[in-house]
Amino acid sequence: MAETTAQEQPPDVEQSVRVLSRLYPVDGVAPPMEDNATLPALSCLDDEAQSERLDVLWEREVDAENVFVLRRLPGLRGSFDVFGVNACGRFAVRFDPRAKTPLGRHVQEPATRNEQTDWGQPCARGLTAQLMRAANLGKPVYATDNGLYDNDDTSCPPLLMDHVDAVGKAVRRGADVRGYFHGSLVDNFEWAEGWSTHFGLLALDRATCERTPRRSAHLYRRICRAHGVPDELRAELDIHQEPPCPPRKDP
Questions:
Q1: CA 170 distance to own-chain centroid
Q2: 120, 48, 84, 89 alpha-carbon torsion, rounded to 10°
Q3: Is 231 helix (H, G, I), strand (E, B) or coil?
Q4: In 3D, which of 54, 65, 55 has the Cα closest to residue 23?
Q5: Which residue of 10, 22, 123, 155 is most buried, as measured by CB atoms within 10 A?
Q6: How far is the C-alpha of 70 from the C-alpha of 68, rounded, in Å?
Q7: Residue-wise pLDDT tens digits, 171-222
Q8: Parallel, antiparallel, or unpaired for β 202-204 and 211-213?
Q9: For the stretch 173-206, what's the b/e string if a residue is b when 16 or more beta carbons lie within 10 angstroms of its beta carbon?
Q10: Alpha-carbon gap, residue 251 to 206, rounded angstroms
C-alpha cells in the first residue's frame, strides 16, 4: 500500500491528511487517499492496522488542540467475542473547516438526511465489504444495525432486501456471519429527532403502545421464513436489485 504524504495532495486534501494523521495514526503515517476529493475512512487501513485499533480505547478527554486522546488498555486486544458492523450508509466527505459535521461536508448524493442528521447513502455492497473485512479479524461477525429513516415505508423494503442479500454474499464468500439485526424492530426515540423519524418495522402508537406491522415487517417475515430473498419476491413486489453505488464526485 503506497504511502501518501500531505505534500502530494491539493490544499484541501492536505488539511484532511493532517487531521486524519492525528485521529488515526499508524506508525506516524497517514492513511492513503482514495482520490483527491474525499476523506479516507478507517476502512482504508489494512487488516493488521485495523486489528491494532482493537486494543485502543477512545477517551472523552481532549488535548490542547481539541483532538481525542487515545489510551491503551492492557489485555483488551483479542479479548472480544464477536464483532458487530453497523451499516446505515456510506459517506463522501470533503474537507471544510466551516462545516458543522466532523472533518468536513458530506457530499454524497443521494442521501438519507434531514436538518439534524445525515445517515449517508444506502450501499448494500458496502455492507458486504465491511463484513468481509471484519471476518478477517478471526471472530464471528454480526450485522448489528442496518435500517433506514423512512416515514412512508417506501424505501425500506428494497433496502431490506438488498442488505439481506449483501449479508448472504458475505456468507457465501466465507465470512462467519452469525446474524443480521434490522434497525429497528419498533419505532424508536432518536436523540436529535425525537419521535419524528420512523425506523421501525412496527409502527408505534405512543399513546396506547399499540404496535402495527408495516409493509417492511411482512416482507421481512417472508425473508426470514425463506432464509434469504427469493427471486419471486422481488418480482412480486417489483423491487429490483440495487445498482452499483455511484462513484464519488468532486462537487
A1: 16
A2: 10
A3: helix
A4: 65
A5: 123
A6: 6
A7: 999 999 999 999 999 999 988 888 988 999 999 999 999 999 999 999 999 9
A8: antiparallel
A9: eebebeebebbebebeeeeeeeeebbbbbbbbee
A10: 42
Distance CA 228, CA 244 (A): 20
Q: Which amino acid is at 98?
A: R
Alpha helices in the chain (DSSP H): 11-23, 47-52, 124-135, 156-172, 215-226, 231-237
- Which residues, other chains included, contact 125 with Cβ-Cβ below 8 Å and sequence gap of 6+? 166, 242, 244, 245
Enumerate residues 6+ apart whose C-beta is below 8 A from 218.
Answer: none
Q: Are 57 and 71 in contact (CB under 8 A)?
A: yes
User: Helix 156-172 crosses helix 124-135 at what angle (to 10 degrees)?
Assistant: 30
What cell does 181 get? 439485526
Residue-wise pLDDT tens digits, 68-106: 566 677 787 778 899 999 988 888 888 888 877 767 888
